[in-house]
Design brief:
The complex is a heterotrimer of chains A (278), B (61) and C (378). Chain A is an alpha/beta fold. Chain A has 12 helices and 8 strands. With 61 residues, chain B is α+β, with helices and mostly antiparallel strands. At the A-C interface, strand 1, strand 2, helix 4, helix 6 and helix 12 of A face strand 2, helix 3, helix 5 and strand 9 of C.
Chain lengths: 278, 61, 378
Amino acid sequence: MNPIGEKYLRKDFLPFIFCPGCGDGMIVQALAHAVDELGIRDDLVLTAGIGCSAWIAVYTHADVLKVLHGRAIPAAIGLKATKPSRKVVTVTGDGDCLAIGGNHLLHAARRNIDMTVLMVNNQIYAMTGGQVAPSTPFSAKTQTTPYGNVEKKLDGCKVAIACGATMVSRWSTAHPKQLIKAIKKGIAHKGFSYVEIVSQCPVQTGRYLLGSGSPQFNLQWIKDHCVKQEDPSKWAEVEAQGNIPIGDFLQVEQPEFMEEVAKMNRRVKEAQAKGGDR
Amino acid sequence: MLCKYVCPCDVYELGQERSDLDYLMPLVVRIENCKVCGLCELHCPDMALTVIGKQKGKEKA
Amino acid sequence: MKKGRIKVMLGNEACAEAALLAGCRFYGGYPITPATEILEILSRRLPMVDGLCLQFEDEIAALVAVVGASWGGAKAMTATSGPGFCLMQEAIGLAVAVEAPCVIVDVMRGGPCSGQSTSTAQGDLYQARYGSNGDYSLICLCPSDAQEMFDHTIKAFNLAERFRIPVIILSDEVVGHIREKVCIPDAKDLKFVERKAPTCPKDQFVVFKPEANDVPLMPNFNTGYRVPVISQAKSLNGNRGNAKEADENIRRIVRKIEDHMDEFAEVKIYGDEEAETAFVTFGSVCRAARSAVDMAKEKGMALRSVEVKTVWPFPDQLVRKALAGARRIVVAEMNLGMLQREVERVVRQPEVKIELFSKIGGMYPQPQEFLRFLEEKR
């Protein structure tokens, strides 16, 4: 096993439940590199929901809270609130984050809570056998859209930006070095970081949507269809070609939620000491 | 066999030995071509191999 | 006579103040009549003690965040009413599965569904016990006045920490919104329970390995234990398990509570303990039953009122003992018969009549109605 795996894998949970060639295993490694290079292992907590991607968190040897489908973000808020110095990383999937968990993504981004969401996008509900997800392209034939998907797909990065996330990036498993940098950037960023990771699912997306279950084919597809475009005004061109824009899209500094809470608490306590309660 | 796929130097081939999970494992056949770029190590979803610097060796899990 | 400060408080206010005294420092909530006051009061009071009160986007987020805060090391609570309680059911299962101490207040209102937001009812009794999926157990307390809203909240936090479970405080609109005298004891006169943390070397700790009392030790996150806490945990090490491990885990999380009921089960008797006719009530209806007992006593009629204070797990033995010798039992509740079924299950004597005085629609039963029921249904 490679040294980063030796250091960061939860050995008594191995072997991975991931299918051969699944991008999730690569993301475990990328996350481990990012945590190692930042040196934040002792402050790290991971939360996750349900789905293949959730297991990325479990296999990482850190304190992990894996909760209900779609609810990884509220769990992260509870952990952050009880000790703001924690580095909270939420690992979620396209269904977990954009469908059932969409509301929580919206409000956590709006609040600009200092946490990092790693959204693993394989464009399908993989764990349950290949059903359509909010990120599945139009006309795709999945287990629940056997005649072709009649819905437009949702872009998680656009949602995150619209809801107030202060750091938004999208990379993929075909860009492991840039991915590690983006995860590091997200964790180090003080505010809500959203890092989407386009990941291969050879067994579901590969076989049903792309025509091949070969890991090499699927990874190559990602490499070919993820186009670096960091200017949102040019995304429409990329999407018109059937491609996915990737890159570091946004990073701004805004008032962070836990800091605002701390400021408010200080103000309240000072007023109390003076005899009021404002 | 993503290692073989991403390797720009054609170091790997499909081997005959099977792993503990019964998958055919890759084999290092052209170690002299290895430029120590680390792509194989980064792309392995199972973190099964590592590139040992100038020694250009390979371990498996 | 209880020792302490006397204050006139809203039932919901008493609950909030007790939570603060018990050490609650995280509240995740959502506005819903008739529980909103708990959220509003704590949004003012928690910042004063460096806690956090957060109004979430929905009740599901509120309770999941409470579970996160619990594993984050805090005593955490939420409060809601029927419709919000429905939304929280999956998360109650989560708290059970990851053994996270937390307190959930359900201030019941008219149902089903959105129902009657400003009227009282007791229709969530079964939901409190069986609302989530699968096999599990938990503790449910039923306050009948503002004083009990206070006392039961302290007790709820203690039981949550002792057993590592979600504890439900099943209140109702009458108890939540009544304003009456509460005696607040000094903190030094109260006993507070904290969860037990491991002291063994970090690499030897097994996250769901129970102690002798069936409750595992609970480490705080970020103290080096690096524990996997997952909702699907069945194995001792926290992973999913095989059939045998699942069987053992499910039985243990039930056993850890139900084998120790003597630590918390409570049934009170008001009136003549030997009276042949007995009322059985829970929550706010206890008050009307007491008045009915007093009214009957003035007329020379002996009645006893059995008040179930810890309704889940149902205190079979205590209820049976409290009803010993009764020939006619009237279960009075503001639903179509839920407590009644438990009493029938527990008192299996064919010669004893068990009747249901059911008052639904949102109006609180008056003491005279109890006596009229006894008269008319003789």
